[in-house]
Description:
There is one protein chain. The chain is 11% helix and 28% strand. By secondary structure, the chain is mainly beta. It has one domain. The radius of gyration is 15 Å and the shape is extended. The mean pLDDT is 74. A hairpin with a 4-residue loop joins strand 2 and strand 3. The protein starts with 8 loop residues before the first strand and ends in an 11-residue tail after the last helix. It has a 3-stranded antiparallel sheet, with no helix packed on it.
Amino acid sequence: MTDCKGWQFRDRRTMSVAGSDERACLETYEYEHGVARNRLIACPLCGYEFEWNEHRWKHFVDDHGPEDIPVSDT
Length: 74
């Protein structure tokens, strides 16, 4: 299998965050040479889907604040 840049990879997985309606948030590629790459494909806080080359940090700086992050009871 190959990714969008033509690199060979052996496995592609997506993960979702609890409470996110099973929407995938994180994509992981494992390449044949043993390197793994993670890419945030959707915001775990609001579900916003990122464009391929969009800077993820800009979304968090512009659209979220500390009050958006759920507080754990533990």
